[in-house]
Structures
1.
Amino acid sequence: MTEARIDFWFTMGSTYSYLSVMRLADIERARGIKFRWRPFHLLLILQDMKHVPFADKPTKSHYMWRDIERRAAMYGLPVKVPAPYPVKQSVTANLVAIVGMREGWGVDFVRAAYRRWFQQGEETGSEPNLSSSLRDIGQDPARILALASGEEANKLLLSATDAARQLGIFGSPTFAVGKEIFWGDDRLDDAISWLQHGSVRRQ
Amino acid sequence: MTEARIDFWFTMGSTYSYLSVMRLADIERARGIKFRWRPFHLLLILQDMKHVPFADKPTKSHYMWRDIERRAAMYGLPVKVPAPYPVKQSVTANLVAIVGMREGWGVDFVRAAYRRWFQQGEETGSEPNLSSSLRDIGQDPARILALASGEEANKLLLSATDAARQLGIFGSPTFAVGKEIFWGDDRLDDAISWLQHGSVRRQ
């Protein structure tokens, strides 16, 4: 394989993305794999598809939290479930994330925001999560929130979302190895296998 | 754990269930785990939830077949994708399956019907799949299809579907260890871990 990298496509309002956000750094270290973090605005794609996951589906939501709780335990990740959901302002968090990816502190912000959302019950995309997460990583909320509400951040996010749509992405997280996509935190091993062998093999 | 068994809840029109149907026998042998096969009629539950998976979602359907193809290869299972989908008469296949579970040839029927559906492109629940699968396993189609259209089979299937609903099941396959449910072929390892340790651990 010529691709030496996995694109990690995620949206800040996605619950299962917590499991990936919190473990990619360890996987990079342990397995020598490089992830490129790509925030996009999933809701735009789901609106096209007339589908919002878990909304008005209490049985499925209940299961989702239980599944996340069990798998977070498996990964050794602290979690307080249910976290606030659905998230009202995921777009703002995505805009901040995309500014951060450009400036170099995006991954730290995403991790801080997920930690506050899933460990302290602070809804992502709203205050106090936004400003506190920025302060946690040494960034000035006033400067960043101004950038995030500007035209350039909006263009970057729309462009990333178009690129996700072109790849056939419809959920978060999605891992992409070239044009091959793998949906769900539970497909990360499949994506790594594809990167290394060009096929999905048992790990 | 006092439970020494995993309930395998499945519906015959479910695509991902193919992956489980074809590998449970090997897992029983290799790991000494007993599965109880529980056909139910998922569409009744999905109608309650106003949700039919993959219908009118071409992007997601496309992904589903690719995902199944990659994972079937990982398990060493032959597969011709896309198989006919959605299935028009999954209820008939479920009725035959539930008669078979009572008479003792149910697992063989389910495997034969999935093999024809996923390896030969014969839609499950319709002819020729129904009668051919019964003949494959040495059963008389006329006798079985009469039983499957009778009141008793219908009652059994409704009762199994109610039991699934009570457990909070909303998809197929679902593995249940007591009241703990695990949705998806990709959660089978989690279910086995729960059975053996009472928690989800890395395998």
Note: Chain B touches chain A at residues 49-51, 56-57, 59-60, 62-63, 67, 70-71, 73-74, 168, 170, 181-183, 186-187, 190, 194, 199-202 (CB under 8 Å).
2.
Amino acid sequence: MTDRSFHVYDTTLRDGAQQEGIALSVADKLTIALLLDELGVGFIEGGWPGAVPKDTEFFQRAAKELDLRNAELAAFGATRKPGTRASEDPQVRALLDSEAPVVTLVAKSDLRHAERALRTTGEENLGMIADTVAFLRREGRRVFVDAEHFFDGFAFDAAYSRAAVLTAFEAGAEVVALCDTNGGMLPDQVRDVVLDVRAAAGPDAVLGMHAHNDSGCAVANTLAAVDAGCVHVQGTVNGYGERTGNADLLAVVANLELKRGRPVLARAADGDGGLPELTRIAHAISEITNISPFARQPYVGASAFAHKAGLHASAIKVDPDLYQHTDPALVGNDMRMLVSEMAGRASIELKGRQLGHELAARPEVLSRVTSRVKDAEANGYTFEAADASFELLLVEEMDGARPAYFRVESWRTIVERNGGRGTPAVAEATVKLHAGGERIVATAEGNGPVNALDQALRSALLRVYPELESFELIDFKVRILDQTHGTDAVTRVLIETSDGHTSWSTVGVGPNLIEASWEALTDSAIWGLRHAGVPAR
Amino acid sequence: MTDRSFHVYDTTLRDGAQQEGIALSVADKLTIALLLDELGVGFIEGGWPGAVPKDTEFFQRAAKELDLRNAELAAFGATRKPGTRASEDPQVRALLDSEAPVVTLVAKSDLRHAERALRTTGEENLGMIADTVAFLRREGRRVFVDAEHFFDGFAFDAAYSRAAVLTAFEAGAEVVALCDTNGGMLPDQVRDVVLDVRAAAGPDAVLGMHAHNDSGCAVANTLAAVDAGCVHVQGTVNGYGERTGNADLLAVVANLELKRGRPVLARAADGDGGLPELTRIAHAISEITNISPFARQPYVGASAFAHKAGLHASAIKVDPDLYQHTDPALVGNDMRMLVSEMAGRASIELKGRQLGHELAARPEVLSRVTSRVKDAEANGYTFEAADASFELLLVEEMDGARPAYFRVESWRTIVERNGGRGTPAVAEATVKLHAGGERIVATAEGNGPVNALDQALRSALLRVYPELESFELIDFKVRILDQTHGTDAVTRVLIETSDGHTSWSTVGVGPNLIEASWEALTDSAIWGLRHAGVPAR
């Protein structure tokens, strides 16, 4: 049974988004929140409403659109300004307006930061903590406090840092998370400080840990804090965050569940979610952040359970547990290296069934599909985020061919700019294809080459397939995949299309971005027509 | 003074080379060995002579060519085969032939591995350890023993694992390194086991630690072992290694020197080498392994000391030590301010100073730059990963115009495919521009439209600016930025260019991917020429 009194608190959307190179849209944040909920975290810190306009919008949309099965949303903000009242501080009011059930307040707990960064006194800083916590409690919110720069502050003036924590609890804070904001602590220091604070705050005080990885010990520091009595852990998916990143929440929860025997992730009533989804969710989120996954990442990395074939290969086959620290299936990873959810026959069979195709009775089709998926993934395809392309591949192997809605003769796209900096470029495309017994040539303009190709393809097909009218390209993602020594990079394009009722995703891969996009565009049209029950004309 | 009785033992060339995607030539290994020696490690494990032909050659060439100022070379190998004599085992003889002053023997210390992988008895395995160690000692070598799978073995049968260690010491081993081969330990377990072994082996026994990062705790596990009495640490540069990698030796030594006050790296008589070289050497080695550096790597990563939050920029300027766990100069790294969404005047001023432009005395320029950066970021630009574009913007505001190396009249790119699925597409581009007093028209092909434009621009400019010859596009990132409902998406392109010595990044944004790429390509050429001191011709 999951221990609900233990908090798994994710801050990917707030502190993780501080990472260089991460820029999340509101839609990205909503999608990530759903994935985190599926994983089974207890709290999702969504951002800083009032300070960051996009975060204000996130909470507005989340209140209406986000259907979480387990996690609670937390809004992050600061204690009130010096010399004001919490109730009159617009930044504090914005936290209320966010309608998040939990508010996490960052509070200075290092005297030097209070004096030098806030330019106030230590005493007024304590007053700010007390006043802001008490105000938000009166307004009916659960209040967590992030004691910023706690460990460095404790080393400088332990009494003051302790007082900041006690003030927060006295004012009604439910949790105080001790933050190693600069990330330089080592596990033994963390343990000693947490034990000291526990002794001061009492055994019932709910203490948390917020670690950064500057000394390479964020995961170990978090575990040391838990061993010393913390029952609330903060971290980010894939360890995203400023500088060296935050504690990788995935490694933290995997260690707690698998090495400490402490179930901390919530599971759905049907047993879904939790640790077996760890690898899939880690990779899905990296698709959204567009940060390449780190192959050596503990538990979920593509290499995490990979063994160089050699001396011990047969021994590994007989006694896998002698060569791995844990069963990779427990975290949804794979000893065989192909990290994809799709790689094994069993999961492909399952996926086929989900899409309405029973493959159990057709083992030869299942074998061919498995082998094509493996080949395709080795070449840069990913089907995790492209169900429609996967289904077309499946249909092709089941029926012997993909649906023949049209036959392409040629296509061309031209982008040109006739002028210097500032002159807009223009894009056009021409498509020649055969459909409905005719040869059709269509040309269209677009705001870029892919858009022009999309318009030209659509224009060519519309007279034969008017059903295409409702299809709209709603998302387009590009990823350059590094290849190993000496080979060229390849480009992967993911396209999402909507017909107003449902949406579907297709993938294309090639040395050339336009070519990869064309593959995804045509797959999208074919899948959409097939799904609508349109016969090939 | 460096503690010479403490061993920093590097195994990048042996265990690190097990990483997927690393393939080192003998010349690569010799170069890396020199860099490791410069860093000041005590021991360099060069490979497994006799088992790996390239490693045999490495030791042959090292004996003749490698002039190490401090480090000793170690040859890695295994205990003799069951049922033979060490003196007659060709693999053991190859260790002698390597002429390495130190031999590190891997020995089974988990009873299950002795029985199931070696298919021998526990007793014979102990005999193999005793016999092989004693033989090599008689031949005048220093002998270290890697007790493989020690921690898992200890959990299964502590008495047997302890006996393996004691046998090695009794036979004359100078060091026994306890190996967490499967990498799943946590620091408290490591500490308890090391304390147990120390009690059994006596206070003078030299124990070492060899950690892998499967639980995300390799660095902390190594420190826990040192705290419990180990005086020999093994690891690899950048944490290279199989699966999740080995303990990152760089983070281990930085933590020992900076956080434990324990100087462990040797310095040259002139003070050269050691920790201040950490970042440079980490990056130099990643050039040789051709593994992209991990930006979030502790101490040496490009982001390790980068700050994003514009809010605190003014405070960081005054009190940098309140915002960093250690002075980046101590490890040869640099504090870097990221120009980000929250860009304030203070962070732009600081950024300008880092790039060598003093803006404090020119407040009107600072205002214009700040306002342009804010506008640009609102339109999708990001300068945190595009220093070169930021500097061009700065220079434009300081000098009134950007450097006028060339004037573009027009460009065009065409991508076409004449055939159905499977036919390759072809891309070409034409650029018309004015430079060096001429009008130049150049056309080039490429594997995609951006590559074709890059080739055509380069071809057009080369006759006027031969300096461009050395520039190479080394990374290309594309991101589609979702805009809010109802507006078109914009595309952001980041390009990294290298001239073989340094690399720089530029950004382009537009509704059209090709247009955005063109902007980043031309900025890259301009920045590179300006940086090389080339005058506009």
Note: DSSP finds 17 helices and 14 strands in chain A.
